[in-house]
Amino acid sequence: MDLGLRGKIAIVAAASKGLGKAVAMELASEGAEVAICARTAADLENTAAEIRNRTGCSVFAQALDVTNYAGVQAFVAEVEKRYGRVDICVTNAGGPPAKKFLDISVDEWRAAVELTLMSTVFFAREVLPLMRKNHWGRLLTITSVSVKQPIDNLLLSNSIRAAVTGLAKTLASEFGANGITVNNVCPGYTLTERLGELADNLAKGAGTSRDAILHQWAAQIPIGRVATPEEFAALVAFLASERASSINGASIPVDGGWVKGLL
């Protein structure tokens, strides 16, 4: 299936590793020119080189803290300067720490809001006017299945990613008439470094091993395994395409059937 992404200009945040890297690689494989950002410059440059070598597409990479609004503004402006427009923006950020309510400080709440919600707001503020000018755009947020079914010990993620979902749903209504769709893509248990770190933390508290925790998670999933980043990225690429032009305001899980709710 030709998704029609060749020549599209795509921003992918937090793209040096994990889901962001997989998404950037998939979009580039479909012919999009990608602009990627992440906090660690060395990791980001390694990812940019890997994408270029595997796809032959141009990659613009810039180290960036997505909680810094001025930095996001400058990054998006540079992408527009280099490529003339922005067609696709995939917002993403590392997840907030796994803690229980009484262990979370007020400062940690504020930091989580900045990381998870405000980073999405920052990118949306900058890219939506550019997309509206061209009467075409795709804004996609990487959230979590926690917006469908809260996950134990991930209180910050459960709370603040729900706010991102509400933001995206509202933007979908506001900008749909401008040829722009806004959707949330909700990963479940996926084989990333982040998942490994979470498994290690849980294993330490339970006095067991990482493999045992991963096995427990896989047993909860109807397909019997966790997802791969590439499977997740395939859905993002489809939603970024013209073929998905009637999908708007949706929150779609990629979880192997882990979520038990009907909606």
Give the topology, please.
Elements: E1 9-12, H1 18-29, E2 33-38, H2 41-55, E3 59-63, H3 69-83, E4 88-91, H4 106-134, E5 137-142, H5 155-175, E6 180-187, H6 193-206, H7 210-220, H8 229-239, E7 251-254
Parallel strand pairs: 1-2, 1-4, 2-3, 4-5, 5-6, 6-7
Helix content: 40-55%
Order of helices and strands: EHEHEHEHEHEHHHE
Biggest sheet architecture: 7 strands, parallel
CATH superfamily: NAD(P)-binding Rossmann-like Domain
Number of strands: 7
Description of the structure:
It is a single chain. By secondary structure, the protein is α/β, with parallel strands linked by helices. The protein has one domain: Rossmann fold, CATH 3.40.50.720. It contains 8 helices and 7 strands. A 7-stranded parallel beta sheet has the order 3-2-1-4-5-6-7, with helices on both faces. Strand 5, helix 5 (155-175) and strand 6 form a beta-alpha-beta unit. The longest helix has 29 residues, at 106-134. It is globular and about 55 Å long. It starts with 8 loop residues before the first strand and ends in a 9-residue tail after the last strand. The model has no long low-confidence stretch (mean pLDDT 95).
